[in-house]
């Protein structure tokens, strides 16, 4: 049977799928230790490619198969003439048959094993082979002591498979976690290493499939990673005889008193991302300033919700929430916009109003919460959302029957009956007021171009993140949403020199 075609992007896998792949590979090789030997050799090659001149190496091994991979790496290092040794806690003697076999092979080669005593001597590099993908709980006190020492060492840290303490499925760290300089994923890319706390723990990422590509092609993906290269050829060029009506009409609603800039940022992004027409409904006091800033937008002063009817009749997509506020004016406009049945992109205060007054949403609605807004919608704490971002995004999508863009490091896009997407782009400089308003306009413009809701959300989130990376090339601090407008235009057209 032919393999099912993969969607745009790179598949990511969870621990359950990796266990199946490990079993499949062990059966194919006829020996489970052969796969561990491949992992150790791949890790040694990766270490040499990253740190070719390193001579003094400490490998911190745990009790499981991740520790076994570490013993194999250290054996290669020792046999190459490096000053390499294993450090471990007394409680971390090998517990699995494969780890015991790897430990035995290391000892037979003349390798040294020392008890961990809070330090790493004259080491130039620490290899983290404590826990791998199997740990989904907080490390115990002794393991936490080792992790703290690794992080305090000031040495480069090479993590095998997963930085110890990081949940490879969820991307969260329930307790202490190793902060790696570089992480080599084994067999397959892990879903949790591309979102949430993983962003500050993994360092750079590499992958060694260990020749498991056939098994990977049969395994179900837990998520799909989208990166800059996936933007190319997503939208067909405009027809030579195109007119503005072909590219859709976006209505941006928001901008309560003192918040007119937020809705204007959404309008700016919608225009730069290719909407043919963009209207703005805002407080009358904001109209002159907004028209002076962006004459291409059609800006309307709206005091009463009833004034929205004619504007919504002409719109193809409504972007609701930037600067909307949570007072009576915003709540009335919110109710009127939802009742119209138009395709919606909801952000900011539109989500906060929705959290207070849950409503049935029109089909194809797109929600774009940050973790705090997601927590209010779900009745959770922000920490609970961040502890399992995949589950939070899925639950929101199921609860509202819509598409959800859960913002943050490793933005997630979820929808009922869809494999979630992880946005592998963006940077900390984008953590500034107004960036979410820009994202709202991006997604609304792509929806108005005719993309389905999930596709528009994925493309818009990726486009926004890649534009942010382009704009941050001169530095992340001081990055402003308006700095993304020129890169948005570049990337919506396929990127530089497309």
From TrEMBL:
Domain YjeF C-terminal: 227-495
Family annotation (Pfam families): Carb_kinase, YjeF_N
Family matches, as InterPro entries: Carbohydrate_kinase_pred_CS, CARKD, Nnr, Ribokinase-like, YjeF_N_dom, YjeF_N_dom_sf
Keyword Metal-binding attached: yes
Catalytic activity: (6R)-NADHX = (6S)-NADHX; (6S)-NADPHX + ADP = AMP + phosphate + NADPH + H(+); (6S)-NADHX + ADP = AMP + phosphate + NADH + H(+); (6R)-NADPHX = (6S)-NADPHX
Binding site for K(+): 66, 128, 164
Keyword Lipoprotein among UniProt keywords: no
Domain of life, per lineage: Bacteria
Cofactor field: Mg(2+); K(+)
EC identifiers of the protein: 4.2.1.136, 5.1.99.6
Keywords: ATP-binding, Isomerase, Lyase, Metal-binding, Multifunctional enzyme, NAD, NADP, Nucleotide-binding, Potassium
Function: Bifunctional enzyme that catalyzes the epimerization of the S- and R-forms of NAD(P)HX and the dehydration of the S-form of NAD(P)HX at the expense of ADP, which is converted to AMP. This allows the repair of both epimers of NAD(P)HX, a damaged form of NAD(P)H that is a result of enzymatic or heat-dependent hydration. Catalyzes the dehydration of the S-form of NAD(P)HX at the expense of ADP, which is converted to AMP. Together with NAD(P)HX epimerase, which catalyzes the epimerization of the S- and R-forms, the enzyme allows the repair of both epimers of NAD(P)HX, a damaged form of NAD(P)H that is a result of enzymatic or heat-dependent hydration.
Family as reported in the entry's similarity comment: In the C-terminal section; belongs to the NnrD/CARKD family.
Name of the protein in its database record: Bifunctional NAD(P)H-hydrate repair enzyme
């Amino acid at each position: 049977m032919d393999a099912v075609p993969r969607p745009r992007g790179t598949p990511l896998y969870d621990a359950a799928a990796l266990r199946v792949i490990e079993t499949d590979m062990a059966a194919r090789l006829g020996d489970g230790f052969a796969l561990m030997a491949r992992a150790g050799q791949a890790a040694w090659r990766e270490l040499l490619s990253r740190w070719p001149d390193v001579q003094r190496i400490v490998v911190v091994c745990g009790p499981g198969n991740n520790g076994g991979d570490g013993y194999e790496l250290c054996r290669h290092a020792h046999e190459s003439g490096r000053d390499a040794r294993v450090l471990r806690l007394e409680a971390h003697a090998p517990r699995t048959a494969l780890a015991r076999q790897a430990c035995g092979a290391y000892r037979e080669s003349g390798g040294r094993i020392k008890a961990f005593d809070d330090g790493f001597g004259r080491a130039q590099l620490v290899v983290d082979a404590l826990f791998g993908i199997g740990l989904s709980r907080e490390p115990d006190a002794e393991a936490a002591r080792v992790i703290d020492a690794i992080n305090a060492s000031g040495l480069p840290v090479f993590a095998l498979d997963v930085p110890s303490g990081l949940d490879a499925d969820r991307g969260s760290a329930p307790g202490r976690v190793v902060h790696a300089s570089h992480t080599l994923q084994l067999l397959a890319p892990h879903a949790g290493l591309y979102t949430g706390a993983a962003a500050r723990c993994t360092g750079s990422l590499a992958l060694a499939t260990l020749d498991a590509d056939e098994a990977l092609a049969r395994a179900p993906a837990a998520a799909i990673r989208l990166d800059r290269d996936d933007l190319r050829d997503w939208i067909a060029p405009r027809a030579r005889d195109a007119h503005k009506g072909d590219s859709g009409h976006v209505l941006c609603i928001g901008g309560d008193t003192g918040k007119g800039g937020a809705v204007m940022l959404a309008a700016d992004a919608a225009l730069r991302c290719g909407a043919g027409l963009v209207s703005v409904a805002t407080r009358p006091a904001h109209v002159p300033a907004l028209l002076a800033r962006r004459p291409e937008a059609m800006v309307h002063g709206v005091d009463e919700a009833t004034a929205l009817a004619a504007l919504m009749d002409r719109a193809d997509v409504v972007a609701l929430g930037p600067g909307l506020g949570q007072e009576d004016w915003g709540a009335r406009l919110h109710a009127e916009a939802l009742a119209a049945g138009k395709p919606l992109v909801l952000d900011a205060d539109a989500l906060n109003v929705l959290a207070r007054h849950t409503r049935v949403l029109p089909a194809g609605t797109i929600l774009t919460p940050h973790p705090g807004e997601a927590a209010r919608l779900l009745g959770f704490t922000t920490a609970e959302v961040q502890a399992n971002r995949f589950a939070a995004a899925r639950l929101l999508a199921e609860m509202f029957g819509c598409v959800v863009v859960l913002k943050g490091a490793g933005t997630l896009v979820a929808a009922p009956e869809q494999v979630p997407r992880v946005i592998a782009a963006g940077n900390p400089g984008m953590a500034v007021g107004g960036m979410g308003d820009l994202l709202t306009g991006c997604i609304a413009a792509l929806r108005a171009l005719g993309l389905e809701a999930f596709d528009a959300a994925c493309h818009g989130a990726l486009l926004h993140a890649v534009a942010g990376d382009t704009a941050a090339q001169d530095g992340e601090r001081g990055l402003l949403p308006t700095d993304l407008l020129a890169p948005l235009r570049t990337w919506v057209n396929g990127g530089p020199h497309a």
